[in-house]
Amino acid sequence: MFENIKWLISPELSRECEEKEIVVSTRIRVARNIEGIPFELKMKTKDAEKLVQMVKSALEMNFKGKFLDLQKLKPLEKESLLESHLISPAIVKKELPTATFISEEGNISIMVNEEDHLRIQGLSCGLNLSNIASKVYEFEEILGQELGYAYNENYGFITSCPTNLGTGLRASVLLHLPGLVYTNEIEKILKSTFNLGMAVRGLYGEGSEIKGNLFQISNQHTLGFKEDELIEKITKFTKMLIDLELKARDVILNRARYELEDKIFRSLGILTSARLINSDEVLSLLSAIRLGIGLGLIKDIDIITLNEIMLVTRPGNIQLYYGEILEEQERDIRRADYIRHKLAKRNPASD
Amino acid sequence: MFENIKWLISPELSRECEEKEIVVSTRIRVARNIEGIPFELKMKTKDAEKLVQMVKSALEMNFKGKFLDLQKLKPLEKESLLESHLISPAIVKKELPTATFISEEGNISIMVNEEDHLRIQGLSCGLNLSNIASKVYEFEEILGQELGYAYNENYGFITSCPTNLGTGLRASVLLHLPGLVYTNEIEKILKSTFNLGMAVRGLYGEGSEIKGNLFQISNQHTLGFKEDELIEKITKFTKMLIDLELKARDVILNRARYELEDKIFRSLGILTSARLINSDEVLSLLSAIRLGIGLGLIKDIDIITLNEIMLVTRPGNIQLYYGEILEEQERDIRRADYIRHKLAKRNPASD
After folding, report:
1. Do B158 and B150 touch, CB atoms closer than 8 A?
2. Is the CA virtual torsion A206, A210, A212, A213 positive or negative?
């Protein structure tokens, strides 16, 4: 089905974006339900089938992209969509018919019959919330006209879980904060995040571990705010975090410049030399290299290459990249191969 | 005094030598005492002064080289001679006048007033005991004619400590045995070594830790054997160890080829990328690279370069190399610099 892994890597992530070294990516999703179709808990198979058909027709009439019936995908393909943030763990677990649509540009994906009937999601590199939000609302509006959303004058859009009531909007930014981790300020900041109505998660959403110094910050509340306000709030908060991160990096450079440079260049040395490497170690090494690029210490690798390595080296994606089911050690070997060739033509010993 | 570190690196270690990947170096020393001069425990300052003068004259008449009065050397210079195995810890601790002579070729050194009046020592790369022994005995014979050795018909040459009685000969080989360490066979072998009348030490002699998988094997007994027998015995034993080491490497290649290759190339990646590195880590990384050369996995670095890095990166030598007294962190920085430039023009990412 996925003849080419490239297809999973949104061109959006390869564009030149603002603050792209600290803000890895930005995501927006809105939750919507269709009037007249039973919600999650009361839904029967025939309701789900009807929903998938309705959404499919509405999308095909209005947009270009791929519409994937998730029940027909192989486990590896689903794993790969998960790793690429194009579907959620919740939709994979569902027993009723589900589907996902991916727009031609790869930056919009729509899950059908996740917790809500529709989860319209936009992905962008860098700090780009307003732009990606307007693309998401393009889809949201047309689908609303075609399908009719469940709406209540007091609460706004009705969602399956009350935490999504109102705007149904969740905006999130994936931040790379090695400086704040190193100076131990991150704990304090995460607490303030929570107090400001924001949630912090790892790379793979709720309950996922923090890896590679990557923090996903998103709004917790969807009710009682306008969409613009929410986006402005999270944008401001992100800019404040960027400021704090840059200050933390200055502190480290003053206090422990050599130790930091050593860590960065050793990470590059290991990544370009390893013959066996697992995906978590890759995240951790990429974090050091990303920081090295941010500090201007590494000049011959770009962030786009790092983003691509980060995505392709995930356990599912690396198998898709080589077009084979691979055992764990084989994955570790191929992953190391892929990275070495991706970063070849460089000489990390030069300075 | 040591205007050029090169002077400390014996040209012997740069020659093409037999088995030079597993046998790093070979050393022979003979202990001799001069008839008519009090031995260590009864020696006075004026005896020591007389001894140093006698030996100096005898050497200057017969051989080319440097004669160094150890009391006049700076601590860093003594440290550097120690690291280069040209003097011993015991001679540095002595309060009476002491000296050392280093031959023009750098492969013969003679300590004056160590535990014995004379310790004539020869150093060679690879497994080369008979050759280096004949050079040592050239010096031993002429100095004996000039100075007259203390000798007893029943015991042979009289030494300060009875363990050196008889031949006064100690032969040692510095072996690189990562395979036997990896397969855990080394413990068993070290026990048999002891039973065969051999001693095992680390890189820096008696009581020194094993570092970088380097084992110094030497004979424990000097009495009751002829010189040739001792040399033959240790040569045979070394050849057996080489055989066992090669077999252990085959076992690892069969069992864990990828893990081994990964370790070797990561070590190379770290060594060519680090910005801070201590001398013990260098020994451990060099061990992996040395093994990589031995297995034919690394083809663009030679053993001679590794031997030079091993010597120059010791804490004293690195300061001498840069001609400055350096604090610990500065040493770690300069050491990393030196290695990176020494191994430059290589691309460890290539394969």
Report:
1. yes
2. positive
Q: Measured between alpha carbons, how far is residue A229 from residues A296, B117, B185, B219 in Å?
A: 35, 90, 69, 83
What's the alpha-carbon Rg for chain A, to the nearest Å?
Answer: 21
| Annotated domain spans of chain B | 2-244, 249-350
Assigned token pair, B253: 């290649």
Axis crossing angle, helix B328-342 with helix B279-294, rounded to the nearest 10: 20
Q: Token pair 């029940």 is at which residue?
A: A71
Count of other CB atoms within 10 angstroms of residue A190:
17
Instruction: Give yes or no for a contact between B197 and B221, defined as CB atoms under 8 angstroms apart.
Output: yes
Quote the mean pLDDT of chain A. Answer: 88
Tell which residue, B253, B315, B260, B255, has the closest CA to residue B283.
B315
Closest CA relative to residue B27, chosen from B201, B160, B243: B201
Secondary structure of residue A300 in the 3-state scheme: coil
Mean pLDDT score, B260-267: 98
Give the B-side interface with A, CB within 8 Å: 258-259, 261-262, 265-266, 268-277, 329, 332-333, 336, 340, 343-344, 346-351
Q: How far apart are CA B135 and CA B209, in angstroms?
A: 30
Q: Which CATH superfamily is domain B2-244 in?
A: Glutamine synthetase/guanido kinase, catalytic domain (3.30.590.10)
Strands A23-32 and A169-176: antiparallel
pLDDT recorded at residue B2: 47
What does each C-alpha distance from B47 to A138, A289, B43, B113, B311 come to in angstroms?
Answer: 101, 64, 6, 10, 35
Q: Between the CA of residue A321 and those of A77, A313, A331, what are the distances in Å? A: 11, 9, 11
| pTM of the predicted protein model | 0.88
Instruction: Quote the CA–CA distance of B266 and B305 in Å, as a whole number.
Output: 19
- Whether B54 and B110 have beta carbons less than 8 Å apart is answered as no
Beta-bridge partner residues of B29: B121, B170
Q: Which residues of A touch B (CB under 8 A)?
A: 258-259, 261-262, 265-266, 268-277, 329, 332-333, 336, 340, 343-344, 346-351
- B8 versus B135: the higher-pLDDT residue is B135
Closest by CA to A121, choosing from A63, A68, A58, A172, is A172
pLDDT in tens, B176-214: 999 999 999 998 888 888 888 888 887 766 667 788 999
CA distances (Å), origin B56, targets A317, B8, B110: 74, 20, 10
Task: Specify whether the CB–CB gap between B120 and B26 falls below 8 A.
Answer: no
Nearest to A57 by CA among A142, A134, A161, A122: A142
Placement of tokens 């601790």 in the chain: B93
Pairing of β A99-103 and β A156-157: unpaired
ipTM of the shown complex: 0.86
Do the chains contact at A344 and B349, CB–CB below 8 Å?
A: yes
User: Per the CB < 8 Å rule, is B275 touching A268?
Assistant: no
B323 sits in the region (left: phi over 0; alpha: psi -120 to 50; else beta) called: left
> Are the C-beta atoms of B123 and B20 separated by less than 8 Å?
no
Q: Is B349 close to A348, i.e. CB distance below 8 A?
A: yes
Task: Round to whole Å and give the CA distance between B234 and B223.
Answer: 15
Centre a 10 Å sphere on the Cβ of residue B97 and count the other Cβ atoms it contains.
20
Where do we find the tokens 């009037």?
A35
Nearest of B101, B110, B112, B128 to residue B15 by alpha carbon: B128
CB pairs under 8 A between A and B: 86
